[in-house]
Prior knowledge:
The structure holds 2 protein chains of 2 kinds.
Chain A: E1 5-10, H1 19-28, E2 54-62, E3 65-73, H2 82-86, E4 92-94, E5 100-102, H3 112-116, E6 123-124, E7 131-132, H4 138-141, H5 148-152, E8 158-162, H6 163-178, E9 185-187, E10 197-201, H7 218-251, H8 254-267
Parallel strand pairs in A: 1-10
Antiparallel strand pairs in A: 1-8, 2-3, 4-5, 6-7, 9-10
Chain B: E1 10-12, H1 16-40, H2 54-75, H3 79-93, H4 97-110, H5 125-149, H6 156-186, H7 193-198, E2 201-203, H8 204-210, H9 212-235
Antiparallel strand pairs in B: 1-2
Amino acid sequence: xxxxxxxxxxxxxxxxxxxxxxxxxxxxxxxxxxxxxxxxxxxxxxxxxxxxxxxxxxxxxxxxxxxxxxxxxxxxxxxxxxxxxxxxxxxxxxxxxxxxxxxxxxxxxxxxxxxxxxxxxxxxxxxxxxxxxxxxxxxxxxxxxxxxxxxxxxxxxxxxxxxxxxxxxxxxxxxxxxxxxxxxxxxxxxxxxxxxxxxxxxxxxxxxxxxxxxxxxxxxxxxxxxxxxxxxxxxxxxxxxxxxxxxxxxxxxxxxxxxxxxxxxxxxxxx
Amino acid sequence: xxxxxxxxxxxxxxxxxxxxxxxxxxxxxxxxxxxxxxxxxxxxxxxxxxxxxxxxxxxxxxxxxxxxxxxxxxxxxxxxxxxxxxxxxxxxxxxxxxxxxxxxxxxxxxxxxxxxxxxxxxxxxxxxxxxxxxxxxxxxxxxxxxxxxxxxxxxxxxxxxxxxxxxxxxxxxxxxxxxxxxxxxxxxxxxxxxxxxxxxxxxxxxxxxxxxxxxxxxxxxxxxxxxxxxxxxxxx
Lengths: 271, 236
């Protein structure tokens, strides 16, 4: 039986070398894309259909000292993913190991997942018309290997292991780091049902441009849990009303009356 | 005093333009509903295989949507028909006491029980309500539909609400459509109206019984015309 895994990214160890981004492209056979200058060392604004992970850089200047915060973006593999709820084609599913995956045979590229993800991770490839995002290197991790990003991470910031062990490790590390960074926190453990990628942040989430409380959009819950069933009820009620209407008109003799009328006027030579 | 009718007495109700508006909407609604069902639930997904799968269905959905909007809007500005369609919209906005009175007894009529109601204009209270729902729904469906077509051009928050709005109006209008089909095909009284949507004429007796106010308006207009004709003939 496969057990739940966890990728713990300790941003206090990250050097911002971006090797994870390159390793991801190498293993998943993703072509390079034209990059832009975003800020300081950052050249990617968001995940794309061909770039599943990138590092964002956040400069901070305080007490005459410059510090840099780094954060690795990719799919967080939520336990309760809103992309899966939004999917029109049952193409998004969860694995026992905790990963959220897209079945590209079923995906039709409708883009519902794109607008539903609180982190704006999945993207539709305009050429293949399918939605893409980090797979967590499911092909590697379910065969006893490290995910490509963790495998390549030189300072050991990206760590992979069994969920419970890694969470324990993360908590111990948080206690150590809190001494130097009073705002340090674990990000992801309790978000969206608990993500499979958990971070040790040195500062509050908004410092990294991350949503503090990412959640399933209200509109999505309304859409899939209220409007769809309610719409079915409305159509069913209308169908029942039609049947009841025909039955009551028949019982009242309205159809017969109409027919007799027509016959009478026929005999009178009305038409 | 109640006028007497021969079976053959007819009254002109819908110009070509009004019928084009109705049938362009009717046909496109069915196509859009069928091609859209495959997106609303996986239960209907196999059905769109008839047109060649969900990808083809989505393209048909877009083409038909554009055709419908173009035909409907252009038709709105052509001749007498266009004028009448615009008048229809104005009449719905002028929803008054007599319309409300009809709307309140409508459930009885729906099930074949008769209740008295005040004389109605060209469209009765129930029809006005149905029309108002359809117009509001279709405008929202068209707007949200185009947003969903070009998701990257639309702010995320608005797009997130466009999806449920599109699904909600589609389902609501489908429920309304079922009732509309019943009234036009299966209801022993109101199914007379369908004739008007084919050749433009409805039985005069039906018009008098259902739209008394409108009936007398048409009759008086006819009288004025005939009067004018007679005068011209007399002058000539």
